[in-house]
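Now read this:
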Amino acid sequence: MTGAVVTTVAGARSVDELALSELRKDAVDTDALARVPASRSGTVTVTFTLDGQSVTVDSDGAVPVESLAE
């Protein structure tokens, strides 16, 4: 799931995935993200803000990214 988040956020920012070092550091608990699709108790949704973007991760694998800047 973390790979999908990195790919989606990089695409939304139009940057290379390697430019997203904050996803590999303390900004996001990657262990927690990895457990989202493993939930068997219904739909789980996690939303967080990352550098001006709202990132949502659903247990069904969806990772929509929305800009918070207007």
Remarks:
- The beta strands are 45-50, 53-58, 65-67.
- The longest strand covers residues 45-50.
